[in-house]
Specification:
With about 280 residues, the protein is an alpha/beta fold. The protein is about 55% helix and about 10% strand.
Length: about 280
């Protein structure tokens, strides 16, 4: 009986912190900056089918949701992993019905679109071409190899890059201060060292950073509200050790490279300097 009255479970922090406006979108200035073609399309309400191509955690899904929120169009999201031709035909039929009833456009977001085979991609082609749906695809793979040329030619490819460490820190700081969706009302803080480690460890992936922050908050000792490096290590374990080791490896490789360069250059340098030094010493 208790389960009937259980509190609804919170969405993950990474999902709660998704922005709903372009002004809140962190990074990707080339893709969504003030003068970008995509931004102009959205602001002028002349959205065309687009394909977001980039690494995980760079904001592909979030950007699609921001576009849907700003345009007010019908928004349908599916994943190519769990969808096929029957699902595509159903959502296209619904889009046609809305279009006939003057109910506006339908934005179809397909995550991992590169996993659709040629036949599945071909189903979309005529409806993208005649404007029945506005297709937003997301892929981590090179679309010029994975997406059919006829479909790709009808979409604008927008490249999203890894977020910088500063961008990740901005997202984390927003999560710490946001009183509605983040930890602002709970007074959770992160030491400067731990914040730096989180931003670096995430590797440009905002989802990784927010997930680790959420796990660290859960692992805080009773009565404590400060996330330190010790708390991070208790959560990330060996993964954080690999991050620490990475710095050592980079330094070691750099030192070895320096030695190799010196070994290669030194004979030539000695051949050039030694006669001069010998001459000076004799005089």
């Amino acid at each position: 009986m208790d389960s009937l009255f259980a509190q609804p479970q919170k969405k993950p922090l990474a999902d709660r912190m998704r922005p709903t406006r372009l002004s809140d979108f962190v990074g990707q200035e080339t893709a969504v900056g003030e003068r970008s073609p995509l931004r102009r399309m959205i602001e002028k309400d002349q959205l065309q089918s687009v394909l977001f191509y980039g690494p995980p955690g760079t904001g592909k899904t979030t950007l699609a949701q921001v576009i849907a929120h700003m345009t007010g169009d019908e928004f349908v999201a599916i994943n190519a992993v769990s969808s096929g031709v029957p699902e595509l035909r159903k959502l296209i039929a619904k889009a046609q019905e809305l279009q006939r009833g003057g109910m506006g456009r339908t934005i179809v977001f397909i995550d991992e679109i590169h996993l659709f085979n040629k036949a599945q991609q071909d189903v979309l082609l005529p409806y993208v071409e005649n404007g029945t749906i506005i297709l937003i695809g997301a892929t981590t793979e090179n679309p010029f190899f994975e997406i059919n040329s006829p479909l790709l030619s009808r979409m604008k490819v927008i490249r999203l890059e890894h977020l910088t460490a500063d961008g990740i820190k901005k997202i984390l700081e927003r999560a710490l201060t946001d009183k509605e969706k983040g930890y602002g009302s709970e007074g959770i803080t992160v030491t400067a060292e731990a914040l730096e480690a989180l931003a670096d460890f995430a590797g440009g992936d905002a989802r990784v950073a927010l997930n680790l922050l959420e796990q660290a908050e859960f692992m805080l000792p009773d009565g404590s509200k400060e996330i330190t490096m010790d708390v991070l290590r208790s959560v990330a374990g060996n993964a954080l050790q690999r991050y620490d080791k990475k710095k050592v490896i980079i330094i070691t490789i750099s030192f070895r490279l320096l030695l190799k360069v010196c070994a290669a250059v030194m004979p030539t340098l000695l051949c050039t300097i030694w006669p001069v030094c010998w001459k000076v010493e004799r005089t």
